[in-house]
Design goal:
Shape: globular
Number of domains: 1
Strand content: 25-35%
Strand order of the largest sheet: 1-2-3-4-5
Number of helices: 1
Largest sheet: 5 strands, antiparallel
Structural class: alpha+beta
Helix content: 10-25%
Number of strands: 5
Distance between the termini: 17 Å
Radius of gyration: 12 Å
Length: about 80
Protein backbone atom coordinates (compact mmCIF):
# COMPACT_ATOMS: atom_id res chain seq x y z
CA UNK A 1 0.00 0.00 0.00
CA UNK A 2 1.28 3.42 -0.91
CA UNK A 3 1.15 6.07 1.78
CA UNK A 4 2.26 9.65 1.33
CA UNK A 5 3.33 12.04 4.05
CA UNK A 6 2.84 15.79 4.14
CA UNK A 7 4.53 17.93 6.79
CA UNK A 8 2.20 20.08 8.85
CA UNK A 9 2.23 22.16 12.01
CA UNK A 10 -0.16 20.76 14.61
CA UNK A 11 -1.79 23.19 17.05
CA UNK A 12 -1.81 20.85 20.04
CA UNK A 13 -0.08 23.26 22.40
CA UNK A 14 3.26 21.50 22.66
CA UNK A 15 4.66 19.38 19.83
CA UNK A 16 3.86 21.20 16.62
CA UNK A 17 5.91 19.19 14.11
CA UNK A 18 3.53 16.78 12.45
CA UNK A 19 2.76 14.68 9.40
CA UNK A 20 -0.48 14.09 7.58
CA UNK A 21 -0.69 10.54 6.24
CA UNK A 22 -2.65 9.95 3.03
CA UNK A 23 -3.50 6.66 1.33
CA UNK A 24 -3.13 6.05 -2.41
CA UNK A 25 -6.50 7.68 -3.05
CA UNK A 26 -5.31 10.85 -1.29
CA UNK A 27 -7.67 10.30 1.65
CA UNK A 28 -6.41 11.48 5.04
CA UNK A 29 -5.77 8.43 7.20
CA UNK A 30 -3.81 9.77 10.17
CA UNK A 31 -2.13 12.70 11.87
CA UNK A 32 1.24 12.02 13.52
CA UNK A 33 3.14 14.34 15.86
CA UNK A 34 6.87 14.29 16.62
CA UNK A 35 7.42 14.06 20.36
CA UNK A 36 9.71 16.62 22.00
CA UNK A 37 12.24 16.53 24.82
CA UNK A 38 9.59 16.63 27.57
CA UNK A 39 8.72 12.99 26.78
CA UNK A 40 12.05 11.58 28.01
CA UNK A 41 12.72 8.17 26.48
CA UNK A 42 10.01 8.75 23.87
CA UNK A 43 11.58 12.00 22.68
CA UNK A 44 12.02 11.86 18.92
CA UNK A 45 9.33 9.23 18.47
CA UNK A 46 6.15 9.80 16.45
CA UNK A 47 2.73 9.66 18.12
CA UNK A 48 -0.57 8.77 16.47
CA UNK A 49 -2.47 11.95 17.30
CA UNK A 50 -5.56 10.70 15.47
CA UNK A 51 -6.50 8.09 12.92
CA UNK A 52 -9.43 7.74 10.56
CA UNK A 53 -11.32 4.68 9.36
CA UNK A 54 -9.39 1.49 10.15
CA UNK A 55 -6.57 3.54 11.68
CA UNK A 56 -8.93 4.92 14.34
CA UNK A 57 -9.14 3.22 17.70
CA UNK A 58 -8.67 3.56 21.43
CA UNK A 59 -4.93 2.89 21.11
CA UNK A 60 -2.69 5.81 20.16
CA UNK A 61 0.74 4.19 19.81
CA UNK A 62 4.14 5.78 19.42
CA UNK A 63 6.63 4.79 16.73
CA UNK A 64 10.41 4.99 16.70
CA UNK A 65 10.42 6.51 13.21
CA UNK A 66 8.15 7.32 10.28
CA UNK A 67 8.85 4.03 8.48
CA UNK A 68 7.59 2.07 11.48
CA UNK A 69 4.51 4.32 11.65
CA UNK A 70 3.81 3.81 7.93
CA UNK A 71 4.15 0.02 8.29
CA UNK A 72 1.71 -0.02 11.22
CA UNK A 73 -0.81 2.17 9.35
CA UNK A 74 -0.49 0.01 6.21
CA UNK A 75 -1.23 -3.14 8.22
CA UNK A 76 -4.30 -1.51 9.79
CA UNK A 77 -5.60 -0.40 6.39
CA UNK A 78 -5.03 -3.85 4.87
CA UNK A 79 -6.85 -5.67 7.70
CA UNK A 80 -10.23 -7.03 6.63
CA UNK A 81 -12.78 -7.02 9.47
Amino acid sequence: MTLTLQPVRVGNGSDEEGMLVFNGNQRLMAVLTHLGDQYGALSGHWYLETGFGRVDGVSHPTFSDLDVAKDWISRRLAHQP
